[in-house]
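wait is this the right file?? whatever heres the structure
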């Protein structure tokens, strides 16, 4: 990515990422769609609203894998292939340890986090309707989380050296597996939430196997040799320096979203309807963010490789090219979603009360996704330059701090209705956009000469 047309290279690199992210998003989207067709609103809300819980740890690991990708891409840009090998083996070895830790912590923390999020009262059977299926789904999910971690680190390594095609192919196969198993387990075997969870875990392990076999059999500097798996101290320090801020940012943001979900579940006193409507909105909203996430990962790799070659101006141009691409893609998705929201919402859940509230959320909240173009792209560029601390502080202060202040003031003094609570998300995006642009313009430097 250090030579040639910038726009063309970003498109070629981002397109497999976009399609891959789309297929990855289909995991949970298919799960919620299948459950939505059963007519069980409690199960639908349970499967659709566990994202903040899973992202507490998954988001932390994605930050670590991002750090690994940045370090590997910079060494690869310098053509220092021995250091690439050390970074690859260190990243894989650490992932093996985290698989054990995350499985145990995830299973153990599930009941406590769900009680916090769902206002559970054992004396009130109605409050437990969503809790039990959510607990069952999450327990299965975390028991099989190793597949997701192994796939992500394998895909991150391949993308760092410019290969975003094979990770996409792995996701295509695993997503197809997930769809087939969802249909068989839920519609044929009538396993409900349990079937959805087993389908997801099985599919994630399929993608992990593909990634592992590729790294074991490939030629070149990213080939993994089991006998060479060890943790290199200095390399680990670099992975943590770059990846830990991004991981903490995602994990803490996800944890704060547990509180947001708590506000949503308590809005208007109709928990199942609100959470079902939010589930529908969040599935559509996630599609809007797919191009942003793909371009952000692309610009991180692009900047990392070009700075490895000391090509500062090309790195800067790549960042702004990606930003305008993000704006164009986001507008192209927001307009049809706003226009056709009444026809999109029933696809997931046809309950009239759920559809009415979901359409309201889609039309009022989705236009603010434009604010996230700056948040995602410029933060990705900073991480590619090795500065993960500033994006972490900026996003945490806005997505956690400002958003929680907004929700506290809104629910205590203004309104406890669903839409005003849901607007806490765009409020955080807007504040983050302003802060990110100010920092990037006046304090950040690709050469490290400013305050970073």
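ok assuming it is, sequence goes like this
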């Amino acid at each position: 990515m250090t030579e040639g047309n910038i726009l063309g290279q970003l498109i070629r690199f981002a397109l497999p990422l976009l399609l891959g992210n789309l297929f990855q998003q289909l995991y949970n989207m298919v799960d919620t769609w299948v459950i939505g067709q059963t007519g069980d609103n409690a199960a639908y809300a349970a499967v659709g609203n566990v994202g903040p819980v899973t992202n507490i740890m998954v988001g932390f690991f994605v930050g670590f894998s991002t750090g690994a990708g940045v370090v590997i891409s910079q060494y690869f840009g310098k053509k220092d292939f021995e250091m690439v090998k050390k970074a690859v083996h260190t990243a894989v070895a650490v992932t093996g340890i985290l698989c054990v830790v995350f499985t145990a912590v995830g299973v153990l923390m599930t009941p406590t986090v769900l009680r916090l999020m769902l206002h559970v009262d054992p004396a009130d059977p109605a409050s437990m309707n969503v809790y039990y299926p959510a607990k069952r789904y999450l327990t299965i999910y975390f028991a099989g989380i190793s597949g997701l971690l192994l796939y992500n680190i394998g895909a991150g390594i391949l993308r760092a050296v410019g290969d975003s095609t094979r990770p996409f192919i792995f996701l295509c196969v695993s997503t197809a597996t997930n769809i087939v198993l969802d249909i068989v387990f839920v519609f044929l075997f009538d396993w409900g939430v349990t079937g959805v969870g087993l389908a997801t875990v099985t599919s994630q392990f399929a993608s992990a196997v593909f990634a592992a076999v590729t790294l074991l059999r490939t030629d070149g500097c990213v080939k993994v040799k089991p006998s060479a798996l060890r943790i290199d101290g200095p390399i680990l320090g670099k992975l943590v320096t770059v990846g830990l801020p991004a991981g903490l940012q995602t994990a803490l943001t996800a944890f704060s979203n547990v509180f947001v979900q708590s506000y949503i579940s308590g809005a208007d006193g109709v928990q199942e309807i609100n959470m079902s409507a939010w589930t529908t909105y969040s599935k559509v909203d996630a599609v809007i963010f797919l191009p942003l996430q793909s371009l952000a990962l692309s610009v991180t790799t692009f900047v990392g490789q070009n700075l490895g070659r000391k090509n500062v101006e090309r790195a800067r141009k790549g960042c702004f090219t990606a930003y305008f691409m993000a704006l164009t893609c986001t507008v192209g998705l927001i307009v049809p979603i706003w226009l056709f929201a009444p026809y999109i919402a029933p696809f997931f859940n046809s309950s009239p009360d759920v559809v009415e509230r979901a359409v309201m959320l889609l039309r009022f909240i989705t236009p603010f996704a434009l604010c996230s173009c700056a948040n995602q792209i410029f933060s990705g560029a900073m991480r590619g330059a090795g500065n993960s601390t500033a994006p972490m502080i900026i996003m945490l202060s806005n997505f956690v701090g400002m958003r929680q202040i907004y929700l506290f003031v809104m629910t205590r003094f203004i309104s406890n209705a669903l839409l005003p609570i849901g607007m806490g998300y765009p409020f955080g995006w807007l504040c983050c956009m302003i802060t990110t642009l100010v920092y990037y313009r006046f304090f950040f430097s690709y050469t490290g000469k400013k305050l970073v």
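The mean pLDDT is 88. so i think its the right one actually
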